[in-house]
Amino acid sequence: xxxxxxxxxxxxxxxxxxxxxxxxxxxxxxxxxxxxxxxxxxxxxxxxxxxxxxxxxxxxxxxxxxxxxxxxxxxxxxxxxxxxxxxxxxxxxxxxxxxxxxxxxxxxxxxxxxxxxxxxxxxxxxxxxxxxxxxxxxxxxxxxxxxxxxxxxxxxxxxxxxxxxxxxxxxxxxxxxxxxxxxxxxxxxxxxxxxxxxxxxxxxxxxxxxxxxxxxxxxxxxxxxxxxxxxxxxxxxxxxxxxxxxxxxxxxxxxxxxxxxxxxxxxxxxxxxxxxxxxxxxxxxxxxxxxxxxxxxxxxxxxxxxxxxxxxxxxxxxxxxxxxxxxxxxxxxxxxxxxxxxxxxxxxxxxxxxxxxxxxxxxxxxxxxxxxxxxxxxxxxxxxxxxxxxxxxxxxxxxxxxxxxxxxxxxxxxxxxxxxxxxxxxxxxxx
Length: 431
Ligand SMILES: C[S@@+](CC[C@H](N)C(=O)[O-])C[C@H]1O[C@@H](n2cnc3c(N)ncnc32)[C@H](O)[C@@H]1O
What we know:
This is SET domain-containing protein. A hairpin with a 4-residue loop joins β8 and β9. The longest helix is centred in the middle third of the chain and has 26 residues, at 181-206. By secondary structure, the chain is an alpha+beta fold. It has helices at residues 47-60, 63-70, 82-93, 157-168, 181-206, 209-212, 214-231, 238-251, 255-273, 292-299, 335-338, and strands at 7-12, 16-21, 30-34, 38-41, 95-96, 102-106, 114-115, 121-126, 131-136, 145-148, 339-340, 349-350, 354-364, 368-374, 379-383, 403-407, 410-412, 427-429. The site of S-adenosylmethionine has 19 residues, from β2, α3 and β7.
């Protein structure tokens, strides 16, 4: 868990524990960023097998994490075996990950966040840093509870209530669910229509209506945006709506509107994922000097071997990857990124990359240890297991704010790493 100073875990009346803001949090701020402690694999439908997987991971947790897991809420408390008890806690608290490998996971702090249909936090699994994040959807005042939405799609009050009661055993009392009768019905009508429009727009995009009836399609999105705005400020569905509008107008050659809709979509996504939305360019940042081939390389973000004397593009993530994007020692993973050619091509030329990270802090007791921040803003430790334990470096070269560069860095699993633990304790090794 890093930089979690925006909140404290407190008792929240009628909800058990919850996260409460301990300072004002500005819209778009990353409030929480946390690694999983227990995961279930994607595509395993067999509950008994999942129960065993979860139980094995719980048993392998270090005592304080295990205690934290066991203190979590369990809405299935009447199960009579330890395995079923763990499974009950897992089901009550697990958050979706859905990165192709992991289906859902337990996070010690993120799983304490309560639900609100008009939540002020946006949850997301960030696959770049292999962590769950929550960003502020609007300004959150000190003392306010931080909330996320447990439901996948917008639905009316009765359907929301039923799903939350069936799946999470509580009755929601958020602002939206507590609206006076007529306002509540009005809100439901809006949500039903937003849902209906979603279907019309996605079918239209899939079946070519963006070319055959673009104005009708634009009307649908216009209505959806208006309904989102009436429903509440900064709805997290807005960026997708602007993106849909951008596709409709661009497909019809209307680049001026396309640019504005695209900018609005990006601005909304930036709020939803805050500082995680890193790699971006402004519309006028198109390189004008490049010849055709080089322009295409830029456009498709292809890896192009550096010519001698050519300055390196520090924003190129295949040359300057983050920690989570590094290849594994001896592994064939991500070879497509890390070789000039395809993985099984015997003539593919190996290429080089450089892991860069800022020194945030350091100490020199038994050995030199550093706390680093990489290009994805992921924090990680660096230990010097060298002969002189880091004393090879001159003291004036070790400063906060300086950059560490590790050429051809790789993940390396040490013998004492926990087996099969996600995002495991691998360290950057290199020459
Ligand atoms: C993932 S946990 C959230 C943390 C939990 N409150 C705790 O004490 O650990 C989910 C459970 O919290 C409770 N909960 C979440 N949101 C709630 C809400 N809006 N009102 C009442 N209870 C809520 C429900 O019991 C739900 O099954």
